[in-house]
């Protein structure tokens, strides 16, 4: 809804949904499917071809409830090949419709009706159509179609680095030609049911899919857990903006961060 249909089909976003979640439900932390779906894929489902960048991306989110309690989500988004011929055919049909609309708009804006310019405009239209088909097309016989997919961990504390490492290792196991030592379900069961939260002031080492992972929890007299790398803040905001934000914090001003 509200999508700009002037964009090519591969630049549009499509409706996503949660495929599976474990465990099914927890009494003290009920699973909010709509919220998690929206926060995992805020822009919706997207498609790519072999010509596009498909590097995995990591992001995090916070769900704050009415009582002020928080849960933290850590998401790894990657692209996997579309194996459904029906979806590939539908994408090609969308491109044919899109190119036809673009071509008709090119014709409408040119001087097609003027006899003196008929031949030159026809050549121009043909050139425009060729460009559209070359730079803005999907050919089912030539291109490989990929679709975005997410794996997400929801935790009671923001152990960003530990969750990031686990998700990356899990993703490698999913995409690797060589399967991991144990079935994937074993690693998921382990982190959900067998890895405890570290006690305050202690660190915990547990095994991921390939390498051990360490997470640390601050003690009662220490600053709250902040596992986010400060370097990324400097890279995102820049030095001057960060100094300005820090000044606003010290002056107890209201701060609004706006982002895509």
From TrEMBL:
Name the UniProt key words of this record, in alphabetical order: Guanine-nucleotide releasing factor
Q: Which organism is it from?
A: Nothocercus julius
Task: Please give the Gene Ontology molecular function terms for this protein.
Answer: guanyl-nucleotide exchange factor activity; small GTPase binding
What PANTHER family does this protein's entry cite?
A: DENN DOMAIN-CONTAINING PROTEIN 5B, PINSTRIPE, ISOFORM A
Question: What gene does this protein come from?
Answer: Dennd5b_0
Signal among keywords = no
Q: Record's InterPro entries?
A: cDENN_dom, DEN5A/B, DENN_C, Tripartite_DENN, uDENN_dom
List, alphabetically, the Pfam families matched. Answer: DENN, uDENN
Q: Where is the UDENN domain?
A: 1-260
This chain's protein is named DEN5B protein
